[in-house]
Design a protein that fits this description.
By secondary structure, this protein is mainly β. It is 0% helix and 37% strand.
Length: 111
């Protein structure tokens, strides 16, 4: 399977992207998705291959790198998403609006 093939998670075609690496830095946590052909506007599901472990600084912001571009992951209200929301989480739903530079977490990850 090449990087240009996407597995879809439903008949409507929401792509399932598996992360290639998760880098825990001192300023951010970056989840890299490699190079994929996705629509500039719409949803995609991310399977985080290297989950963020318990003990990681909970206030670090989360970024996603897709096709060489890194953007901050936010909540729908624009608040930056932090590690606290994704610790020990392996699958998330994301809304991508490349035209307005929006990348939003749509799935609830905390009880």
């Amino acid at each position: 399977m090449t990087c240009f093939n996407n597995v879809t998670t439903n008949a409507g075609g929401i792509p399932l992207l598996t992360s290639t690496t998760t880098t825990i830095g001192t300023d951010t946590i970056d989840i890299s998705l490699g190079f994929r052909r996705i629509q500039p506007l719409g949803y995609f599901t991310v399977r985080i291959s290297d989950v963020i472990p318990t003990g990681t600084t909970a206030t670090l912001p989360i970024t996603l790198t897709l096709n060489g571009t890194t953007r901050a992951l936010t909540l729908p209200n624009g608040t930056p998403l932090t590690a606290a929301a994704l610790i020990n989480t392996s699958v998330i739903l994301v809304y991508n609006d490349r035209f307005n530079s929006a990348l939003m977490l749509m799935s609830r990850t905390i009880a």
